[in-house]
Design goal:
Blueprint: E1 2-4, E2 8-10, H1 14-22, H2 27-30, E3 35-42, E4 45-50, E5 56-64, E6 68-73, E7 80-90, E8 93-102, H3 106-127
Antiparallel strand pairs: 1-8, 2-8, 3-4, 4-5, 5-6, 6-7, 7-8
Protein name: SRPBCC family protein
Length: about 130
């Protein structure tokens, strides 16, 4: 399953946007209003839970300075990645596309596609407000 958000316009340079996303505690600002729990576990991992949903631990998997950050599920039960691709518009503005990629059976994919789409669209919308 692959889901991608429209470009989010961010009023920060490419470097500042990358640094914001690289600091995992900042993801709290991007989370939906129905966040039930958010905890930074260490510099490479954070845990979050939305109301009525199980806790998910995300960890940094890869990064290319000022261009891309890839977060992935810390558990192998639901293998997926959340990628932020950052492009420079000018020195004071950048664009970010978030993409979600996961390997799920057809039934699971059908159940989670809508909530995941809403979730990453919320992250993208809130990113444009930072």
């Amino acid at each position: 399953m692959f889901i991608e958000t429209p470009k989010a316009q961010v009023a920060k340079s490419k470097e500042d946007t990358f640094n914001f996303l690289n600091e995992l505690s900042n993801f709290r600002q991007l989370m939906p209003e129905n966040i039930d729990k958010f905890e930074v576990l260490n510099e490479n991992r954070f845990l979050f839970a939305l109301k009525g949903m199980p806790e998910i631990v995300l960890e940094k998997k890869e990064q290319t300075p000022f261009e891309q950050i890839i977060l992935g599920a810390a558990s192998d039960k639901l293998p997926f990645t959340l990628t932020a691709n950052i492009q420079e518009v000018d020195g004071q503005q950048s664009e970010v596309i978030l993409s979600f990629k996961g390997e799920f059976n057809a039934m699971m994919a059908m159940m989670i596609k809508s909530p995941i789409t809403n979730f990453i669209n919320t992250l993208s919308t809130n990113l444009s407000k930072i």
